[in-house]
Task: structure prediction
Amino acid sequence: MENLQQLIIDSLELLLLGMGTVFVILSMLIFLITLVSKLVANYPDQPPGGLVRKPVTVTSNRNASSEAELIAVISAAVAAYRKRR
Result:
């Protein structure tokens, strides 16, 4: 019986040591993530080197000639792609 009590005490010590270790590591992880997010918040959102893309504006003319022209352009692009492959 005394051997069983010693096993239970040892298992509780191991449980507290393991859970304490996990708690400390997770606390450090939360601290580091918070610190990095505060450091990153100071930098601008634009990529370095002037690699900012200009937005493309698309006009939509819904007449028959523009749709025919679009079909011709797409067909030519598909044909050029198939020719390369």
Notes: The helical segments are 2-40, 64-84. The chain has a mean pLDDT of 85. The two ends are 79 Å apart (CA to CA).
